[in-house]
Amino acid sequence: MHYPWWYVPYSTGPMLIALVAVVHVLVSHYAVGGGLFLAVETAFAYRKQHRDYLAYLRRHARFFILLTVVFGAITGVAIWWTIGLASPLATEVLIRTFVFGWAMEWVFFVIEIASAFIFYYWWGRLPERTHVRIGWIYALAAWISLVLITGITAFMLNPGDWPGNRTFWVGFFNPQFIPQVVARTGGALLLASLYVYLHASLSIKDERLRELVSRRSIRPSLAGAVMITAGGAGWYVFLPPSAIAVLPSAAVLNVFMGLIVAMTAVVFAALYFGPYRNPSWLSPGFAAMMLIFGFGAVSIGEFIREAVRKPYVVYNVVLGNQILPEEMPRLAESGVLAGGTWTRAFVTDRYPELIRDDRLDLDRLAALHHADRVALGEVLFQYQCNDCHAAANGYSAVGPLVRGRSPREIQRLILDFRNTHFYMPPWAGTPEEAGLLADYLRAIAPDNPEGMFLGGNAREDDR
């Protein structure tokens, strides 16, 4: 409505955001927990004058910088590109609301980059105490960055009192802030330990040194698992009511919740019976298994966190179809095709006769050829539905969902979203525009398979 639509076939723009964001999260959490690991363990190795351990930590620091600073920075920029194209209105709201927070985050990000490079490239040239301090500067800057970004992303799920008091701190210290900071800090500790286990099992030949790394990393990883559990419980407690209602209404989310519990239990058991009780068990296969299960639990958790925001992108602030809730009455009166900036431009260019006095001319709309109605319906689909659904094929495609339905049945379904599908944005346009969308959806719906029992003929008025 406010911005031109960025069409991504099959996967949809939001799923592309999810893919990029999950990859970034798996790396960025290691950037936080791994920085803490390097700061603590470098201080320990200097204090014990353990030269072999110091040599390993230097190798690990190289791996850490390549993965978190180089690849992590690339995926971080990719997130901004994708959200700016796929969810421009939500991105605008977040930038305008938290411009001070983003500025702080960038300051700490610069500190992270500078201290990480100093920590690695000046290894052996700095006094031991100064070297450790640089490591702690990185670790603290990375954790503060996590806190700042978590406050903003938690705002998207539950802005609390912000809609009535639109100030930075009210939005930042939202009901989800503390639970998500606890959970993400725990995730950073756990994922960092799993990365360390895999790297150590592949790069350390000395069995005693490998067992040392295993023993030194186990307590943070177990603490991280506990923090994830506590933060996850708090996350659920502070969900908005409709977000809680989404969980039992979607079967896939119930399956995913079960998978998170199962994967977390597997990782916790593997940590306890492996590195904690039997450090010698640390092998590439065992470490890779733990990391894969850790990746799975975190990735599914991110999916659920995004899914329960429906029907919003920013809860109570921006609907999933990039429309502000306060715009709904105006669009219901004028229509989306005439009331949206870019939809109006399309109609004015292709069908100028349809707009009269800033509204759709319903008589001329009714006289359109079927092909033109389908074309306008496709425009409505892009702006109203494509933020969550592909068209005929792809992620959550709508075509197969309306298989066998008549245009009139589809139109009735569209107009009744508020009652039948509360997790979907309510219809924003006029009933006549719902008819256009119904014509388009019927055109892309696949036919019923041969041999299907229909139970009688369709009613004449629904054909």
Secondary structure layout:
Blueprint: H1 13-48, H2 51-86, H3 88-97, H4 99-121, H5 128-157, H6 168-172, H7 177-203, H8 207-237, H9 241-249, H10 251-276, H11 284-307, E1 312-314, E2 318-319, H12 328-334, H13 336-339, H14 341-350, E3 355-356, E4 359-360, H15 362-366, H16 370-384, H17 407-415, H18 417-420, H19 431-444
Helix pairs in contact: 1-2, 1-5, 1-7, 1-11, 2-3, 2-4, 4-5, 5-7, 7-8, 7-11, 8-10, 10-11, 16-19, 17-19
Structure report:
The protein is mostly helical and 463 residues long. It folds into 2 domains: 13-319, Up-down Bundle (Formate dehydrogenase/DMSO reductase fold), CATH 1.20.1630; 325-448 and 458-462, Cytochrome Bc1 Complex, Chain D, domain 2 (Orthogonal Bundle), CATH 1.10.760. Helix content is 70%, strand content 2%. The chain has helices at 13-48, 51-86, 88-97, 99-121, 128-157, 168-172, 177-203, 207-237, 241-249, 251-276, 284-307, 328-334, 336-339, 341-350, 362-366, 370-384, 407-415, 417-420, 431-444, and strands at residues 312-314, 318-319, 355-356, 359-360. The strands form 2 sheets. Strands 1-2 form a two-stranded antiparallel ribbon. Strands 3-4 form a two-stranded antiparallel ribbon. The longest helix has 36 residues, at 13-48. The model is unreliable at 457-463 (pLDDT under 50).
